[in-house]
Amino acid sequence: MHLSFACLAKPVLHGYFRSSCSWRVRIAFALKGVEYDQAPVNLIKDGGQQLTEQYKALNPMQQVPAVEIDGITLSQSLAIIQYIDETRSDPPLLPADPKKRAQVRMISDLIASGIQPLQNLYVIQKIGAEKVQWAQHFIDRGFQALEPILKQTAGKYCVGDEISMADICLCPQVYNAERFKVDMEKYPTIKRLNETLLEIDAFKVAHPSCQPDTPDELRA
Predict the structure, then answer these.
(1) What is the pLDDT of residues 89-131, one digit of tens each?
(2) Of 26, 32, 118, 187, which alpha carbon lies 20 to 30 A from 78's?
(3) Residues in Cβ contact with 37 at an 8 Å cutoff, skipping those fewer than 6 apart
(4) Is 40 helix (H, G, I), strand (E, B) or coil?
């Protein structure tokens, strides 16, 4: 079996310490035990380093994350996570059972498409003074849908008793909810799951409080 040099090189994650989407990828790498390098992209400094021509060549959407892995460059966190899962199989991040697998994808998409994009930095910057109320509204709207779904699907984790891509998406979204002062007492299932996940080493090492680009005042 011949492996190319690109496949032997460490992946490089271009991300931002507090980016939900970058955080998801960090969790996936940690769960898989994959060593990787980080190339921080400051979304605030100099008007946003993601807007440079250099970064645009890496990710035309000018968003984080982008991952250089196995000789290709990928963007969009769920695509990256599923590539990692398909090429580094243990532990699996999607269940073998088709119904549970569909539930994991449903929950992941609800968060990654239905909540997070409506309160991400780019949108919030456009909203201006009403940004906190805006973010609270759309996170609450999403959590009002997510809570009853998780009541049906959850065991120890979002879908049953195995960690999955759904859990990877949940934790960063709860962090955002807390940043924007959403009342988590209204969502006991989401709150319980998040508290469980934050005790897992892979989630701890991926946390925004301990990344190479975390500002000193936000370090754990």
Answers:
(1) 899 999 999 999 999 999 999 999 999 988 788 888 888 888 8
(2) 187
(3) 10, 11, 12, 13
(4) strand
